[in-house]
Design brief:
two-stranded antiparallel ribbon, 201 residues, Hypothetical Protein Ta1238, Chain: A
Amino acid sequence: MTERDKRDRETVVRLDRIYTRGGDEGATSLGDGTRVPKHDPRVAAYGTIDELDAVIGLAVASGIAEPHRGWLVAIQNDLFDVGADLCVPGEAGERLRLTPAYTQALEAIIDRENARLAPLKSFILSGGTLPAAWLHLARNVCRRAERHVSALMSLPAEKERVNPEVLRYLNRLSDLLFVLGRVQNADGALDVLWKPGQRQG
């Protein structure tokens, strides 16, 4: 990587003004300058990634300790890379694309943390401790983001313009958030188990 490339990477975003009025008519710009409606499937996908980042931020703020806090903050940074990848379609975005290393990093954490958990014999309800509840909410938002990306990739005009590593990363991230939710519930001891038909008596 040249010094110029390093400077370009460090100045991917420059925010001089908070509002531009450019979106007042219901359109926004992709990373390659293309103007699209704000309800465009690509915008819905990376907008949901932004929402996921915010929910993980709430989980972190709820008091998660190290090393889990550090892992989650690193994932928040990953999610900005995911958003940057999605907002620049096709060849225009080669400067920043997810690679298999992103997903591999998640898999290493899953393998490490899941080894300490007892196998589940029932589905679990979202809840238990506050950090666990936030992580389960993050997992659900992650699944929605995954559905948006999958829908985007199903469009004939978009299939070749979406990095498939994004979908792999989100699929694995939802698994990790589930595992970390259980870890935050005293390694599963405080998981709230689903009791099928409970109301039926």
